[in-house]
Protein 1
Amino acid sequence: GDSVTQMEGPVTLSEEAFLTINCTYTATGYPSLFWYVQYPGEGLQLLLKATKADDKGSNKGFEATYRKETTSFHLEKGSVQVSDSAVYFCALRDTGNQFYFGTGTSLTVIP
Amino acid sequence: DTGVSQNPRHKITKRGQNVTFRCDPISEHNRLYWYRQTLGQGPEFLTYFQNEAQLEKSRLLSDRFSAERPKGSFSTLEIQRTEQGDSAMYLCASSIRLAASDTQYFGPGTRLTVL
């Protein structure tokens, strides 16, 4: 069945460091891909998305490119801030409109 | 628009009791989803509605779970004869169907503790 595998955490970085959180997926057909973020004490929020191969989603300095050849959707940010500390979830929506989430990666950014 | 709301926010119950949760989606959103999330895991899909029709149901959803969306607006999720393994955060999300896009907006969740 469809699934998402994302890099295990926790990840701890210093402010202004480069961030990569790996995400790979298994799916039949052509899924849409998403990154969601959950800040401490808050609900899940959509961070960015890509609906077809080679699309790049971007928001708040974060980027992810839908790579069909490597079945990946890695999240990157060039310079993280303390306010980026959160749990990040990679997800896919299959052609039947079911969503599959990864287990989440906790990021802590220290000043 | 105040976003997706869920009630109650917390529920503590004894094993064997029935519980019901409510989700009010963003108005005009015709799709509504239920998920379960346990500590350290991502949300697990349970079921989803388009308007009042329940279109998908996960194999994870046992017979003790039932969901309704009678008028295509709010939805309820009922768990009968609760078990300790049902303890989790139950999340609701809504979206509006648009071509090539289906952005879900999540509610704050209902945390269920079964004693």
Protein 2
Amino acid sequence: GIQVEQSPPDLILQEGANSTLRCNFSDSVNNLQWFHQNPWGQLINLFYIPSGTKQNGRLSATTVATERYSLLYISSSQTTDSGVYFCAVDNTGFQKLVFGTGTRLLVSP
Amino acid sequence: GAVVSQHPSWVICKSGTSVKIECRSLDFQATTMFWYRQFPKQSLMLMATSNEGSKATYEQGVEKDKFLINHASLTLSTLTVTSAHPEDSSFYICSARGAGQSYNEQFFGPGTRLTVL
């Protein structure tokens, strides 16, 4: 099956810093989503982005489907950005999401 | 829009008992729902796909007799963990495929933490 690797696995930032999270996948995909899992376990949708670039406030994402990677940018980080960031992909066409290994982010005041 | 709820949020049960977890799409109809499992500090693993009015399809390695899934309506799917054992303790999360412009996205419930003693 498709492999999804995320880097870095852990990231510690000072409030106000910027960061880039990476998601590499081993096959072509027809769906890619980025999620933020908060400390209570809730997954929050950030982006649906199988290709191209999107922005939403301090967050933006870019997927280069031909090179099989996606990037999530967080600017001016806040303590509430702490948690685990997952990318998830589907290459079956049946919405069977395969989750990446996750990036654990801690933003300190 | 696209709100998914789960109930209960946590449950503790004795070994050998069965536990039912409900997943509801609150403001949209979901023909397809999914069940995932997450162990501490690990990623999510898809267990099964639940389609309204038909049998669920299970991922390889998931025991369908242990994890019974029923998708009786366009807004409700249930997961029953039968004869639960301590190794079934985990965080169970459901999701629903969106509608309209969000049809290709999945929206997740808040999860159910199951502890089997």
Protein 3
Amino acid sequence: AQSVTQLGSHVSVSEGALVLLRCNYSSSVPPYLFWYVQYPNQGLQLLLKYTTGATLVKGINGFEAEFKKSETSFHLTKPSAHMSDAAEYFCAVSDQNDYKLSFGAGTTVTVRA
Amino acid sequence: EPEVTQTPSHQVTQMGQEVILRCVPISNHLYFYWYRQILGQKVEFLVSFYNNEISEKSEIFDDQFSVERPDGSNFTLKIRSTKLEDSAMYFCASRRDGSYEQYFGPGTRLTVT
């Protein structure tokens, strides 16, 4: 069974500042890891994913995340926040045996001008 | 770009009534999912569906729930006798064969009064 913990339900950053969203997972088998973003009144949109290979993965809108097996982490970063990054972000895990997603509780990002 | 659609966007129903939530997955996708998010809680997996049968279901998905693909395009979630605790946002997702990525719809907000 898999589970995901997202540290911090709310993050507030200044425009242009670093965005760092933390995600730790537990999984009994090698995980597949995902970050989804949800803008108001919209569905969940995939930002990026890790399945195999390079542990630093780049996604859309300038986001990237690094899979660290030793730390069981998959933190999401963006060097410079933009006002349009204000949204809710979800970390999720699945495994190679089934594809159902287990989600974290989500982190709401607000960007200050 | 193809997208998953869901109707209605908001459904209000009285306790004990039946509701049907509708989803139109992306046309060449073969795997379908329902998730729900109770306000303030995590997104939770309900059920996965492939080849006209349930692949996996969570403990939430009891006898009150059913899914169906009545034609070549729709994928429905039925709740036979709604309870107050069924109030949540329900997300449909679909996935094509050979991909790990699930595409999510915008959700249906179900309010049971």
Protein 4
Amino acid sequence: KNEVEQSPQNLTAQEGEFITINCSYSVGISALHWLQQHPGGGIVSLFMLSSGKKKHGRLIATINIQEKHSSLHITASHPRDSAVYICAVSDSGGSNYKLTFGKGTLLTVNP
Amino acid sequence: ETGVTQSPTHLIKTRGQQVTLRCSSQSGHNTVSWYQQALGQGPQFIFQYYREEENGRGNFPPRFSGLQFPNYSSELNVNALELDDSALYLCASTVEGGAYYGYTFGSGTRLTVV
């Protein structure tokens, strides 16, 4: 069973700051997902990656497969980035694609 | 049709009752997973359906059951509701090989058991 740990649990930043959220997992995966969840529940998929780095706008996600670690970076943070950011991993192998989730990081960006 | 739609958005039930939650996936998404998210926690895997058959289950009792239909819709049924079943229930769908193509999530159903 994969264990997914995120840090920090809570993060408060001032508008414009550079944000980093970390995720580590315990066993091999086929892919890692970064998700955003706003109050009310809806989850939006930000990134899915299995190696290297991906960038979308002000968001950057990196993964180190050997170290079983991923980071989500937000450059020039804005109050609208305030949300819960969740790391989830897809089990490797087989046809069971279930995701194992971390507990999430609550990000608050103040103006 | 794009996106994943869940209904209802909110629901209040009494302990001991039964509930059915629905998820409508986008066309072609033959894999759907259901998750339970308690307040302040990450989602927990309930089960997954692939081509209308359950093909994976998390640590949930048999009173949690599901169905998947040929039109890419699915249901989560919970019998004999308990207070601890109060949570946000999320469905996520994908095409075969979802680990490589990503998931689309619904907005969830908030279930309150009183």
